[in-house]
Amino acid sequence: MHALGTHLLVELRDCNPGCISNVRQVTDAMVGAAKAANATIVDVSFHEFNPFGISGMVIIAESHLSIHTWPEYNYAAVDIFTCGDVINPGDAARYLIDRFESLNPSIVEVKRGLISTKDVKLPHKVFERELECVS
Questions:
Q1: Does 125 score more than 60 pLDDT?
Q2: Known active-site residue 68
Q3: What is the pLDDT of residue 132?
Q4: 133 among known catalytic residues
Q5: How far apart are CA 62 and CA 81, in angstroms?
Q6: pLDDT at 130 exceeding the cut of 60
Q7: Catalytic residue among 83, 102, 106, 133
Q8: What is the pLDDT of residues 1-41, one digit of tens each?
Q9: Of 105, 80, 100, 83, nearest to 91 (Cα)?
Q10: 62-92, pLDDT tens digit by residue?
Q11: 124/128 Cα distance (integer angstroms)
C-alpha cells in the first residue's frame, strides 16, 4: 500500500510533568525529535497557556510535528506527519517518548494519501506540471 504520507498519533501517558510543563523544554524536545528523524526544519511556534499546558508545532519540509500538553494529567498528545520516504517518523516518536519520560506510550499509524488506484508508488513532489487553484 503506497501512501503520500505517514501520520503517527502518539499518546504519551504517565509523562514526567516537569518535562512537559516548560515551554523551552517542550520546544527543544520537539525540535530534537525533528532532527532525530532527519527532517528539514522550516519554522517553529509554541505557546504556553496559563496556568499550564503547551501547544506547539514544528513545521518541516516533509510536513509537521505538533504537540499539546496537559502536565496536570502527565499527558501529551503528539502528531507526527511526514511525506515521502526519506525520514522515519518513528525515530521522532521514540525520541519524544524518552525525552518526556512517558511510562505508558502508544502509537497509531495512519497512511495518508492513498490515492493510487493501481498501488503504484507516486512521487512526493510533481515537477512536470504547474499546479493552479482556480476559485
A1: no
A2: yes
A3: 58
A4: no
A5: 8
A6: no
A7: 83
A8: 677 899 999 999 999 999 999 999 999 999 999 999 999 99
A9: 80
A10: 999 999 999 999 999 999 999 987 899 999 9
A11: 12
The active-site residue out of 7, 19, 21, 63 is: 63
Residues 6+ apart with CB under 8 A from 33: 58, 65, 80, 92, 93, 95, 96, 99
Question: 85: which DSSP letter?
Answer: S
The letter for the amino acid at 2 is: H
Closest to 73 measured CA to CA, from 25, 13, 2, 4: 13
Tell me the backbone φ, ψ of residue 17, rounded to 5 degrees.
-60, -30
Which segment of 72-76, 103-107, 125-129 scores lowest on mean pLDDT? 125-129
pLDDT of amino acid 47:
98
If you ran DSSP here, which 8-state letter would residue 122 be given? P
Residue 67 grid cell: 504537540
Q: Residue 81: which residues within 8 A CB-CB, separation 6 or more?
A: 5, 6, 7, 8, 63, 64, 65, 89, 112
Backbone φ, ψ for residue 50 (5° rounding): -105, 125
Residue with cell 507516486: 122
